[in-house]
Amino acid sequence: MATEELAEQLRSRLKLAGICGIEVVWGTAGTVAVATLPAVDFVVSAIVGVAGLEATYAAVKAGKAVGLANKEAMVAAGEILTREARLLDVPLLPIDSEHNAIHQCMRGGRRDEVRRIWLTASGGPFRTLPLAKFSEITVEQALKHPTWNMGRRITIDSATMLNKGLEVIEACRLFDIPPAEVRVTIHPQSTVHSLVEFIDGSILAQISVTDMRLPILYAMTYPDRIDAEPASGLAFDMTKLGRLDFETPDFERFPCLRLAYEAAQLGGGHCIALNAADEVAVEAFLAGDIRFTDIARTIEVVLEATSESHPGSIEDVLALDEHAREVSRSSLAGAGRMQAR
Questions:
Q1: How far apart are CA 50 and CA 71, in angstroms?
Q2: Sheet containing 192-198: which strands, arranged edge to edge?
Q3: Whole-model pTM?
Q4: CB–CB of 58/36 below 8 Å?
Q5: Which CATH architecture group holds 267-331?
Q6: Per-residue 3-state assignment (H helix, E strand, C coil) for 14-80
């Protein structure tokens, strides 16, 4: 459970129901305990933000196969997580659709045969909105994703394309590839989930229904594939494909994507600051305290105030994360005072 109070409420309800033998844990210590249980074979890291980071790292240290449904863990501590996973030969299997697609396509060749990887993006709800109207975007408009049904923060990140920036950083860590070899292409149909381009010019694309059950199934059964029954709804009808459009993203329209590439190039503390600043800014936008365009401005201010560093431990990561959040809140408070004047 998230808090000690909720854990105690659940214990009381179990007791009243006459259910015995169930241990209820809470908070970070609880997630670590669950993720490292001897009986556990596979751990899914799906807590939004850095809250699940310590449990993810503990699972890797314990030799558990990890399914990553959380971008932030790899963005903030990917250097540490991947180093430990490779040392212990622990599989890190991406569950988000884009990296899962890359993982599947990478099985078509050796790493030294890969020229670049392509992450697809829907473009969000503001792909064609005139730039002059971006400062007027409301929370309700930003939460209307054209393809996926996701959580509030992830949906806003899709609208700013910061989520694609986080995916660039995650791809660099997961597949040991530099930022210059990770490209983003806007694909409104969201049918091609990502592509891998090989040195001979061949491109492999992963195509499927827009259903998160499929990447979850792939990760949990890897390295095997199991038969998904036709009634499951996971079969893709090629006759309905129609057309495939691909566009180059505009950094002026999506400055968060540009900032993410800059952070990816510097690595370490800048990636931590990027994620932390975005969390704080998105929370402020959802609360109605700032405009949509202020999200990117806040991130840029925080990145400019961040010194180059490469944390060596999870404790260092969390300390840098908290510092970046403090800088973000101070920046937003200062901006608020200026507007009041």
A1: 9
A2: 182-186, 114-121, 192-198, 203-207
A3: 0.89
A4: yes
A5: Orthogonal Bundle (1.10)
A6: HHHCCCCCCCCCCHHHHHHHHHCCCCCCEEEECCCHHHHHHHHHHHHHCCCEEEECCHHHHHHHHHH
Burial class (CB in 10 A: 0-12, 13-18, 19+), 283: middle
CATH 3.40.50.720 fits 1-94, yes or no: yes
The two domains 1-94 and 267-331 share their CATH topology (first three levels equal): no
Question: Which has the closest alpha carbon to 285: 118, 149, 160?
Answer: 160
Encoded amino acid at 58, one letter: A
Question: Measured in whole angstroms, how far is the alpha carbon of residue 79 from the centre of its chain?
Answer: 15
Sole residue written with tokens 């510092």: 323
Sequence spans of domains, the chain: 1-94, 97-261, 267-331
Write out the two tokens for 279. Answer: 């969390």
Task: Pull the structure tokens for residue 74.
Answer: 């790899």
* Single-letter residue type at 215: P
Half-sphere exposure of 203 (CA within 13 A, CB side): 9
CA 162 to chain centre: 10
Query: What angle do the packed helices 53-61 and 314-340 form, to 10 degrees?
Result: 170
Tens of each residue's pLDDT in the chain, 341 residues? 999 999 999 999 999 999 999 999 999 999 999 999 999 999 999 988 788 999 999 999 999 999 999 888 999 999 999 999 999 999 999 998 999 999 999 999 999 999 999 999 988 889 999 999 999 999 999 998 766 666 788 899 999 999 999 999 999 999 999 999 999 999 998 899 999 999 999 999 999 988 889 999 999 999 999 998 877 889 888 888 888 999 999 999 999 999 999 999 999 999 999 999 999 999 999 999 999 999 999 999 999 999 999 999 999 999 999 999 999 999 998 765 445 44
